[in-house]
Amino acid sequence: MTKVLPTAQLTAEAYPKVKRNPDFKILDADDLKFFQTFLDNDELIHSSIAEETASFNQDWMKKYRGQSNLILLPKSTEKVSQILKYCNENKLAVVPQGGNTDLVGASVPVFDEIILSLRNMNKIRDFNHVSGTFKCDAGVVMRDAHKFLHDHDHIFPLDLPSRNNCQVGGVVSTNAGGLNLLRYGSLHGNVLGLEVVLPNGEVISNINALRKDNTGYDLKQLFIGAEGTIGVITGVSILAAAKPKALNAIFIGIDSFDTVQNLFLKAKNELSEILSAFEFMDRGSIECTIEYLKDMPFPLKNQHNFYVLIETSGSMKKHDDEKLEAFLSSALETKLISEGNLAKNEEEYNALWTWRKSVPPACNSYGGMYKYDMSLELKDLYSVSEAVTKRLNAAGLIGDAPKPVVKSVGYGHVGDGNIHLNIAVREFTKEIENLLEPFVYEYIASKRGSISAEHGVGFHKKGHLHYSRSDIEIRFMKDIRKHYDPNGILNPYKYV
Ligand code: MLT
Ligand code: ZN
User: Fold this and answer.
1) Ligand 1 residue neighbourhood (C-beta within 6 Å)
2) According to the CATH classification, is domain 248-359 in 3.40.50.300?
3) Mutate to test the pocket of ligand 1, among 60, 103, 142, 165 (most ligand atoms within 8 A of CB)
4) What are the annotated GO cellular component locations (predicted)?
5) Which CATH number fits domain 366-455: 3.30.499.10, 3.30.70.2740, 3.40.50.1370, 3.40.309.10?
6) What is the CATH number of domain 11-117?
7) Residue 5's pLDDT band (cuts 50, 70, 90)
8) Alpha helices of 207-256 — where are they, by DSSP H?
9) Looking at CB atoms within 10 Å, which of 69, 187, 207, 492 has the fewest?
10) 366-455 shares the fold of 11-117
11) Model confidence over 390-449: pLDDT tens digits?
């Protein structure tokens, strides 16, 4: 059994206004006995020792921690169904969990909810190399899906910095966007079918769906991004793209966010069909990452206010190289940018991506982080980061220890109009939280943005949806949740 020292404060203590729902049953010996009748030893962890359950109870940002004593890790859809049927009949609350890399406190319990981990459902079910249809269990780690498809000349249509831990079902449940949405589109387009266990144990499946199917409501869409509130995804069918034969990347230093936007326009015009990512990082993101990656050589000579990573994916290396070289030279000649590093080989390509993918763990390495994930019009995208930094500075909270905030940084997906704001902290305090909220949400609402672009709602943003959604939309969401889960056993205290 993996033992992890619990470091996050208990959610119940950090947020005392949230009360345990007294309608939920408290787990007892009979419940345990029932689960033991059909689950093997490696499908059940029961322990009241915090170190033994910390990796399931505590989130990746070390911000939330539940107090569950029971983790169920079924190996089949039938077993998931048996579990949910029993929990529903006995009003036992359940939190579904994938790789537990979630960023809004959605995948850990708030109180004593049973943790339903999909970790043991990790088989690839089928792959059709002609159509590109890939089917797998929900608990397949995204890295393994990538590896399998790579070996079959295809790619999984989504990539994330957490690819070594996150699971396919988890990314579908949270509708993660990732690093290449600009090219391959969202999971609402790529997911072909789902197998889902409803809270009453019924299995609803269209996992064998075809690419086109207009026979009525597209029910699977409801489960994409539902964060396990209306059903537990156990199987996914997804459209894999053909593996690009030529991948390339440039890392660029830029002095203003206006120039980032101009460069994006230039990239769309000149790199057009081969453009597959356009990511930005601000100075602070890279300062944290330089500290985190320690001895890794930085790809540019100077430090800049902004950095952009542009990736191209195509089918003919010579053609792509020529396009990229011409793009880089003209950007330098016209003084749009002052420095750029074009990867010369696969090793350099991977190294450039490491600078982008390491920003989240770098920010999380000082103790923890407050995190916001927002969509805004491109012209406003970086302004929220500036506003937050100004506010934290005015309160004298950013600086060397003992100040609680190490840095407030912004980075994200320019191509998707999505910024991530990471406030790297030495400790979580109510003073910081009260400065950030509702300020960040009000700011986003004033610009008509979305308070969650891709990380979801979870515990963090429950009760804040009105900043981005109308009353009628929220009412419909609540109706849908009630319809699927009348006893409210799935992922309670979260979402809507
Ligand atoms: C990313 O873009 O790196 C992911 O959304 C994860 C993160 O921001 O932590
Ligand atoms: Zn992201």
Assistant:
1) 103, 160-161, 360, 420, 454
2) no
3) 103
4) mitochondrion
5) 3.30.70.2740
6) 3.30.43.10
7) confident
8) 220-223
9) 69
10) no
11) 999 999 999 999 999 999 999 999 999 999 999 999 999 999 999 999 999 999 999 999
